[in-house]
Amino acid sequence: MDWLLASQTLPFALAFGLMLLILLVETVGMLLAASLGHWLDNLLPQDLGEGARGRVLGWLHLGKVPSLVLLVLFLLGFSLAGYALQLIVELVLDHYLPALLAALLVLPVGLFTTRAVGGLLVRLVPHDESSAVSEQSLLGLSGTISQGIAKNGWTAQARIRDQYGRVHYLLVEPDRADEQFDEGAQILIVSKMGAIWRCIRNPHLELL
User: Fold this and answer.
1) Which one of 2, 4, 60, 191 has the fewest CB atoms closer than 10 angstroms to its CB?
2) Alpha helices in the chain (DSSP H)
3) Can you say whether residue 153 is alpha, beta or left, with left for phi > 0 and alpha for psi between -120 and 50 degrees?
4) What is the pLDDT of residues 42-91, one digit of tens each?
5) d(CA 145, CA 180)
């Protein structure tokens, strides 16, 4: 424990502790029909843009993998790489690196871990079709709220099946400010604003 919480390894202990706290909060949130991940997605820009920031965020697969998952991957890779670095340095040189220097050295490791594992998740996590034609084809389709509560200013995850039988998971928000859709609610996709799909209550249940 002295080594895990030493001042030279403090940044990595904080990163690992934050990761555990995020997992705990998200677990509790799921039980309460709330999601830290959805809140974080709402804070992030819907349009990554064409500049350096957009390229970096795109390189990290933001928008293809849930942002909270990417954050957990970074914290895990950063903390484990930091502990490994300090352990190797201590074995070779018989002393630790300064905490700030060690953190700067393993920062790229955390980013590359996020990209590498995130790239694997892109193939496993259902996501929206990226082309304009595919997005247009999702308009008018029906589905079900699969996670969270959709209300004004707050998105939830909806499960939609297209005409080819493929399943899509979309972030949706009610088209009307006075509507709220709980988990299991049957909805109809009517438009898209940025990364958020707008929906109404499905008036034609036979479409499901």
Assistant:
1) 2
2) 10-31, 36-43, 52-59, 67-93, 99-124, 132-138
3) left
4) 656 555 555 666 677 777 777 677 778 888 999 999 999 999 999 999 99
5) 11
